[in-house]
Write a structure and sequence with these properties.
The protein is an alpha/beta fold. It has 2 domains: 123 residues, lpxc deacetylase, domain 1 (Ribosomal Protein S5, domain 2, 2-Layer Sandwich); 166 residues, lpxc deacetylase, domain 1, CATH 3.30.1700.10. The strands form 6 sheets. Strands 2-3-8-4-5 form a 5-stranded mixed β-sheet, with helices on one face. A hairpin with a 6-residue loop joins strand 2 and strand 3. The two termini are 14 Å apart. The relative contact order is 0.21.
C-alpha cells in the first residue's frame, strides 16, 4: 500500500503577499484522509471553506486564485506546488488575509517549514490520475498538452525577448527528491518595466528584490544573481506543478507546455476532467513500482505513520 499524507502538527508562518502587499499569517493544520487541500479565510466572518480544485479556480492573471469575489485566496500556486512536491494530500489552511505569503519568491521556505513540521502517513491509500488519451489546449501561440506516461514528466518551454532569458526549455522527471533539489528554490520573476502597469492593476504591491528576480532591459537586478542558470524555466515548472496539483491526485502523465501560464494550466486541467475516457483514477497499489517510487521522500523527510 502507498498511503495518503498530511502534516505532523500545526504550523504557522507570516509574510507579505506579493500582489496585495499585505502582511498575512498562514496556519497549516493536519487533516484526515480524503480531506484534500482546503483554505479558510479566517478574517471574513462565516466564510466558507475553499477546496483547492481545478473547478474552484477563479482569476488566473499573474497568479492562481481559489474562489471568487471577497472570499478568495490568491497566489496559491507555490504552496500547492510544495504539497504536490512532497506528496502531501490533506491540509487545512487558515489564512487571515487575501493572499498566501510569497516568502522569498520560491517554494524553498515552505519546504523548510514542512521539513521542520514533519509529514505523517494516513491509513488510506493514495489514488493516481492516470492519463489514457492526449488532451491539448491552445490560446493564440501558447499551448499545453497532457498525454500518457507511467510517471509525471513536465517538458516546458518559455520564450522571452530578453537577453538573459531568451528561449529556455527543461524536461523535468518528477520525484520528490528532484523537486526539492531542482525546482523548489527557483524564484518568480518579472520585468522592471512592467511594475508600474501591474501596480495600476492592483498587482505586485508587495514585490521586491527580496521575493522575486527583477530584470531591467539588459540584466538581473538582484545583487546575488541567479540560483540556477535556467532559474526562469525551473520556476515555470514549479508553477505548473502547483496548478496541475488542482486535479486532486498524484498524476501519471506527461505534460508539455509552450509559453504557458496559470490560465493555460487551468484550462488543461478542466479539459482533461471533462474529456470522457481521457483518464482513470486508480489505487496506487495497482500501478508499476517506478510510478509510486517517484513519491518516496528523502530520509530527512521520511513520514511518521498515524
Amino acid at each position: 500500500m502507498f498511503y495518503q499524507r498530511t502534516i505532523a502538527k500545526k504550523v504557522e508562518v507570516t509574510g507579505i503577499g506579493i500582489h496585495s502587499g499585505k502582511k498575512v499569517t498562514l496556519t497549516l493544520h493536519p487533516a484526515v484522509a480524503d480531506f484534500g487541500i482546503q483554505f479558510k479565510r479566517v478574517d471574513i466572518p462565516g466564510a466558507e471553506n475553499l477546496k483547492a480544485t481545478a473547478d474552484t479556480v477563479g482569476a488566473t492573471e499573474n497568479n492562481t486564485t481559489i474562489g471568487a469575489g471577497k472570499n478568495a485566496v490568491h497566489t496559491v500556486e507555490h504552496l500547492l506546488s510544495v504539497f504536490y512536491g512532497l506528496g502531501i494530500n490533506n491540509v487545512y489552511c487558515e489564512i487571515d488575509g487575501p493572499e498566501v505569503p510569497i516568502m522569498d519568491g520560491s517554494a524553498a521556505s515552505f519546504v523548510f517549514l514542512l521539513k521542520e513540521t514533519g509529514i505523517s502517513t494516513l491509513s488510506k491509500s493514495k489514488e493516481f490520475l492516470v492519463v489514457l488519451e492526449p488532451v491539448k489546449v491552445e490560446v493564440d501561440d501558447k499551448w499545453a498538452i497532457i498525454e500518457p506516461s507511467n510517471r509525471l514528466i513536465i517538458d516546458s518551454t518559455i520564450v522571452f525577448a530578453h537577453p538573459v532569458i531568451k528561449t529556455q526549455r527543461k524536461v523535468f522527471e518528477f520525484t520528490c527528491e528532484n523537486y526539492i533539489n531542482e525546482i523548489s528554490r527557483a524564484r518568480t520573476f518579472g520585468m522592471l518595466k512592467d511594475v508600474d502597469m501591474l501596480k495600476r492593476k492592483g498587482l505586485a504591491k508587495g514585490g521586491s528584490l527580496d521575493n522575486a528576480i527583477v530584470l531591467d532591459d539588459f540584466k538581473v537586478m538582484n545583487g546575488d544573481g541567479l540560483r540556477f542558470g535556467d532559474e526562469f524555466i525551473r520556476h515555470k515548472i514549479l508553477d505548473t506543478l502547483g496548478d496541475i496539483s488542482l486535479l486532486g491526485y498524484e498524476i501519471a502523465g506527461k505534460i508539455t507546455t509552450y509559453k504557458s501560464g496559470h490560465n493555460l494550466h487551468n484550462l488543461l486541467c478542466r479539459k482533461l476532467l471533462e474529456t470522457k475516457g481521457a483518464f482513470q483514477i486508480v489505487q496506487a497499489s495497482s500501478l508499476q513500482k517506478e510510478t509510486i517510487q517517484a513519491f518516496e521522500l528523502p530520509r530527512a523527510l521520511a513520514p511518521s505513520f498515524h
